[in-house]
Amino acid sequence: MPPRFVLRVKSGSLQELLAEIRAKGGRPIQAFAPSHVIAVLPAGTQLDLGEISSQPDATSSSVTAHRTLATMESREAAGPEPTLSWDMPGKKPPMFHNDSPSACPAQASRSTAIRPAYKQLFDKIKSYCKKFSDKTKWSYKQKVSGRRTFRDGGTATGRYMVGRVAVALVIVGRQRGTDPNPPAEFLTTAERDAAATQISAGLGWLALEEPRARVEFVFDRTDIELAVVPSATTPDTFEDRESVWRDPALAKMGYPANAAGYARLAHDVRDNNGARWGFVIFVTRYPVHHFAYANAERLVVHYDNDGWGPSELDRVIAHQVCHIFGALDEYTSSGCTCTQRGGALHIENGNCRSCATDFVQCLMEANTFSVCDFTRRQIGWRSPLMASLGKALEAGSNADGRIEVFYIGIDDVLYHTWQLPRGNWIGEYHLGPSSPAKTKQFAVGRNEDGRIEVFYIGLDDVLYHNWQLVPNGKWIGENML
Ligand SMILES: [Zn+2]
Questions:
Q1: How far, in Å, is the centroid of ligand 1 from the Cα of 261?
Q2: pLDDT averaged over the chain?
Q3: Across the strands, what pairs with 223?
Q4: DSSP 212
Q5: pLDDT per residue over 28-86, tens digit each?
Q6: I need a surface site. Which of 46, 204, 213, 292 has the fewest CB within 10 A?
Q7: How many angstroms does the Cα of residue 307 sit away from the middle of ligand 1?
């Protein structure tokens, strides 16, 4: 892991500092509005707009930044821990959907406002929401997810986890009051800071997991204390429980109630921070229907985090944020199937525990810090959405004049990408069709009939070549020279 630093804005804005870090070859990972950043910096980097902060100052963004970095470093030093499936006996899994019937029409009308072209489709969903019970809606969703999913594909502010992502972190507790014993919904400053630290550490791990996606999380935190007293007669549904504290909290921030309020907040936090994406994390100690759930532009988590505890908020939140970007659950009791499709790219759920042929550990199945290939593609970690990273490249040209570029990625794999007939590029593919070839040096040639041929030295020092079978065509695969 390259060295990371906490930086403080010296002059200018947070956004300008983020731009300067990138321009000087660094990589921002997390930013804490209005003033602090955790970034990877090349040795000896001199910044004009920021300075390294070696000690936390009194501001909450500074405290959270320093504690987040310390949390991430100690976790990395401790190494991998045993993983626990989200549906292990005695614990509850964080959930994807808010199935409250009242949420259906609100969500559909909001989404159609954002994307008028989808109106017909959302009208259909709306009528399904009305027609079926919660249970039937689940199976309906699973049925349509085999073809095309709407709610599973993220929203206009959360489609691909690529680039800068702004997070409105809203921490909602109850006022302490004058009673010597604080109410059960009260959150101390230390608890609020601990939650913020856990959340940013969890998302910092996610940001580092795929360098090509260049994910930066910018946190815009709001602490709210409400006078609202929860009532024992509130029906135990997602929406009824949530609206008790969510709507007064949104009102304090100047936003309308319901899904319209947090959707607007997600758009604002995105736009105010120059981000591509935005969503809302509500942390609360008010009673909720389920300790952690996510859909559309927001996720909700109870501070106590049910059986997992506040010290595992990092994993629960990282899991839930993958849902925000369209990833599907993989633990058995979620009812996942390998043919359902998730994310804006409609990627199959091939690592679903109950049917995977080659199951690997994944954050969508367990509280582990690893992400399987299916989840990666569901959240948009796929070329050409992501940048390509390479260390050597050479361009060739096809018989019909289209350019084809070959390069060694930072993982030593030999990749190529080529122009399509209209001039745009297809994106990154390893030079196939066989399994990815690792190489330390390569050269591109062209045969008399226009077929490209690539020569390379493998990591095993053996000389290989691979050639197009016909001009502008497919490749034969790796052969020893
Ligand atoms: Zn889940």
A1: 24
A2: 87
A3: 171
A4: G
A5: 999 999 999 999 999 889 999 999 999 999 899 999 999 999 999 999 998 888 889 99
A6: 46
A7: 15
Distance 320 CA to ligand 1 centre (A): 6
Q: Residue 351 burial (CB < 10 Å; 0-12/13-18/19+)?
A: buried
Contacts of 437-440 spanning 24+ positions with Cβ under 8 A: 437/413, 437/464, 437/466, 437/478, 438/411, 438/412, 438/413, 438/414, 439/408, 439/412, 439/413, 439/414, 439/464, 440/408, 440/412
Beta strands in 233-295 (DSSP E): 277-284, 292-295
| Alpha carbon distance 239, 236 (integer Å) | 9
Cα 28 to ligand 1 centroid, rounded to whole Å: 27
Distances (CA, A) of 426 to 382, 404, 420, 423: 12, 10, 6, 10
Q: How far lies 140's CA from each of 123, 135, 154, 436, in Å?
A: 15, 9, 18, 39
Going from the Cα of 329 to the center of ligand 1, the distance in angstroms, rounded, reads 5
Secondary structure letter of residue 389 according to DSSP: -
Number of helical H runs and strand E runs in the chain: 10, 19
Q: What is the pLDDT of residue 410?
A: 81
**Tens of pLDDT, residues 182-200:** 999 999 999 999 999 999 9
Q: Which amino acid is at 137?
A: K
Residue 86 CA to ligand 1 center (angstroms) comes to: 8
Q: Identify the CATH number of the domain defined by range 95-324.
A: 3.40.390
State the pLDDT at residue 108: 42
Q: Calculate how far, in angstroms, residue 481's C-alpha sits from the geometric centre of ligand 1.
A: 49
